[in-house]
Structures are given as structure tokens and as C-alpha cells.
């Protein structure tokens, strides 16, 4: 619906923008600013002329970007105020899914499941590379499993993020843990990204196969049985979970805890495991059990979804920043990225 | 069958601990021959000489008679026989709030890129020191430091975090292969090793805290032994729970001959060092631990001997802290030491 076009601002930029939601352009003086719709490439070159215009620009950025933050400067123009309301009606948020990279048991070819094994150096590098790909996508909350390989992936990825907000792991395990981790500055809290750890996002529990060599498991139980456990939807290994059981607890958690955050306008990142993530994708994309069995998630390559008006729209894999060109998945994400570009380093 | 070979290089000032004796030293290596080139101060020794001595400060290096060490066929028993265990302490590197100059305490803030690098470098320094158990705090910056450091380790045992928080967590994390269990290093997380809890200062900017409470008050909280910040811990309180945990949980492991690594925080570690080195409260306040630089202690006959900071392997030379540690180091791979330069020091604790 909205017109899409390349966006160039050369010379100085006035920063007065009206009617952002439908993407119409505003010509003010020598600047041209056109908004971009989902499926077009955005090429942004913005220059700010002076501080005043920058403040107005920054405020409108604040309204339009997916993340919520306060800007202290007074709102000067009513047109800008209305653009903020347009955004809230827009209510579009980003959902990033990140599967952790190589763990030390992957390297040794052992069934891992819920055994808490850390990343290899390669896995750590995968997390860092993944972080570079999402460094310009807003993140307001992070969910991970209780396993260190997912948590490290989240932390290493966020260390690359441009927003300079700090992830803080929330501790609820006991009253002391809660009291001891209190933050006493409201400003600091605003610049924090809560990280919530949940066993429901753990990898599928592999029961009596955990720790076994894939070869020796085949010798012990027979190749077909092992293949069945690994690739069926509802047959669990002895004392373990089937993919169906894993999906049941992962998707309930997603629906009960994570989706409400998305509806509230929070941009969310989930760092988890092959089976818990494909279970969630099964829900997001309405896959059949056969389709989900065949779904293979690349490790360390983030998947982006945009949550809009109750629907999940798959947006593929964000490209690395070194790649030429800027791909904005939605207008809001483009503007967020722009805001980061304007931020002093 | 154990061929003993070692190499010693005496430079002008090698100090054996507090004495001027000649320390004979024999390294035990399982079936490997060491091919080394010796360079003493004024003599050139041909390769594959068996046993040499280090002498401090005298102008010549003397060669002592080789010592027969009973050859050890059981690699697993060598530690127990010598009742000697290594204890590595690592303080985590830069966290995201260190970078922003905010009081952190027990807020669970992760490492910066620099902190990650520090952990990896620390790992390189200890890559040859045996580790059987790891203890960390419940904060991610210490856990990540431990995991990143171990990913540099040469032994290739895999650290596995123990989950005891409830019955399901315990059950779900079970390992069903004995062989795999043997190749694992249990990692135990304990809140008692957490950083000192900083109460109402947590999250505050160091500047604004000074403005809020006054510079002297803040200085007192930070640098006194027993004055806690509001709703926080004093260093004394931190030490009390950290050292109690160390004594109750970690010392028994060392007594059983397990080599232990503790990855924790400035205040919890200096509390433990206060215990290991028998420091006074004034001394512990002045103690500053470098971040990302591991500290090695040897636990032997119930006593802790400080061994300083291990040098990374890229620096020329091999530093053996004790025979047992050197044995472990030589074990499992063949050594070809071509040139030993000035940093080659052997110390024998017998």
C-alpha cells in the first residue's frame, strides 16, 4: 500500500515529518525523506544540520522505532506527536530466534540433550558472528534456556549490539537471589535488557541416550530404533522426551510468557536449541508434524520474525553488516537502524 | 620404562625458594623421550642428557646425580600418591557495567568483548595445568570466564555444569555413559562465591553515588573491612560466606587430590586468598587481583603454597610448578623442545 522508494537525504535534513505510517514523503526545503515499505531496499544517507533539528529528528525516531525509550526534549510539533500515536497503532515488534553454535559434545559427536555442556571456540565465534547480524535490530527482552550454551550465545551476541543497553539476567530462584540482584537506579534499569532463563526452552531431553556416542548407541539399540527416536515426532527415547513433548512445553511457554511481551510492543530475542526453536517455529509458521521433522535450523544464523497485529511474518535471516546494502525488514526497523547510525559511538 | 629427561637452563639469577641448595629434579614422562638442547651458562650440553640441576646465583651450573623416581604406571594414581593438588583462581574480566562505571555487586551483568578476550587469554595461561573440578559463582560473567578459559585447555575434558536446583533439573541432566563421565569436569555454581553484594549502590554511577552519599562515605564502604553499604554486605560478610564455602566444599576436594579451578569475583577471591595466605584485614583491603590473570596455588600436606601467575605457553620456556604438575603436563603428548630460552625454571618441592 505504501509507496516505497529509495531514500536519500543529501545536504541537510530538516526532520519535520508527517504521516509516517503510510509512507508519504515530506518535502521540506532541501531535504527529501521517503519512507520505505517492507519489501524494498533502503539506502539511507542522512546528515544532520544542527542540534535543534537533530533533537526533533531524534524524538520522532524515538516514537517510530520499535524500542521504547524516553527522550527528555520537549515535543515541539503536534505533527510529531501524532506520528507517535500512529506508531502505537502500528504496534510491530521484532522476534529474533537464535540457535546456539557448536558445543563441546557436538564436536565429540555425543548426544547432548539437557546435559549442560558449553560452547567450543567455534561455537563462541558463531555467537559473535550472529550478534553482528542482529546488531541493528532492537531487543527489549531476551529469553534463553537454563543451559550455558544458549546463555553464552545470547551474551556473546549482545556484546556486538549497537544499542548499548546491557542484558541483565533475572534471578528468581530464591528470595535472597531476588533481593541480592536488585538494581537501585531507575535510569540504569531503563538501559537494561532483562534476560529470563527458562527450562521450558531447553533442548529436548534425550533420556538414556545422553552422553552416548552416536555410533555406540547404534550398536546398542540398533540403527533403526535410534533413527526413529531422532526423527519421529512422538516416539521418545527411553526416559526421554519425544519432539512432541518438547514442543508441548516450549510452545506453551512461548504462548504464555513471550507472546504477551510481543503484544505489549517489546522486541524479543530467544536464544535456545534446535528442538525447542523448531517447536516454536512450528507454531509460528503453522507447520505440520512432518514439516517440523524436516526443518533444520542453521546454527548461529539468526531468524527474524515480525509480529504485527497478532500475526508472525517470517523475515528470513538478517545479513551481516559487511554485506553491501541495507535491508530494512520493516519501516520501523529501518528507522531504528538509522537512529543507531546517528548515535555517537 | 619411564624415561626421565628434562632440561634445565640456568641463568644468572634463578632463585630457589629461600635457599641456595642445588635442587635435583627428575621429570617423569610416560614413554616419551625428550629431545632437548641444553644451554647452560658457559657450557653447551648435547641433547638428551638425563638429569640436571638448577643452581641459583653461583657462576656455574652443577650437575647432580640423577634421582631415581619410582616409575608410575598408573597415571590416575600419581596425584594421590603425591597428595598434591593445584588450585587456580581466576577473576573475571571486564563486564558491561565495569565499562559504564556502575556498581555491579550481585547484579548479573555479562562480559564485554574485552572481558571475553581476557578469559580466553587466561585460558591459554593455564592450558597445561590439570583441572578436575571447577567452582564458579551463580553470575554469568564468572561462568563465561570459566567456560571460555577451559575451551583453550589442552586436556580436552569437557566441563559440565551440575544442576541441582530441583529434582527435574537433576534428572534431566543425567549422563548415561561412564566413559563420558570420566571425560567430564564437573562445574559447580555457588552463590557463596558471588561478588560482594553492594546493596543500594547496585546500578548506581560511581559519580552520582558520591554526590548522593558523600565521597567519604562511599570510600568507606568500598575500602573498609566491616562497614556495609545500605542493605549490602561488608567485605567481612562476603569473606565469611565465601571462605566458609571454600573450607566446607572445596578443601575436601583438594584433600582428595582433585585439581580445582575457581572462577569468581574480586571480593570473593580476595576473601579466599585472605584465608590461603593468612592475611590481615588491612592487607586484604589493599589486595588487588588482576582481572583475567590466573593465580596458582599448590595444596600440599594441608598447606597452600602460592605459585604466582602462570606464563602463557607462547612465551619461551616451560615453568613446572611441581613434579606432579609437570608429569601431568608431559603426559599424553610428545614434547619436542627445541630451544629453551631464559625463562626455563624448574623447582622441586622435595
Automatic annotation (TrEMBL), chain B:
Residue positions of the active site: 92, 195
Keyword vocabulary terms for this entry: Glycolysis, Isomerase
E.C. number: 5.4.2.11
SUPFAM superfamilies on file: Phosphoglycerate mutase-like
Binding site for substrate: 91-98, 104-105, 141, 195-198, 206, 222-223, 266-267
Recorded GO MF terms: phosphoglycerate mutase activity
Marked site (Transition state stabilizer) residue numbers: 265
Coiled coil feature spans: none
Keyword Isomerase: yes
Keyword Isomerase: yes
A GO BP annotation: glycolytic process
PANTHER family, alphabetized: PHOSPHOGLYCERATE MUTASE
Similarity comment: family membership: Belongs to the phosphoglycerate mutase family. BPG-dependent PGAM subfamily.
Protein name: phosphoglycerate mutase (2,3-diphosphoglycerate-dependent)
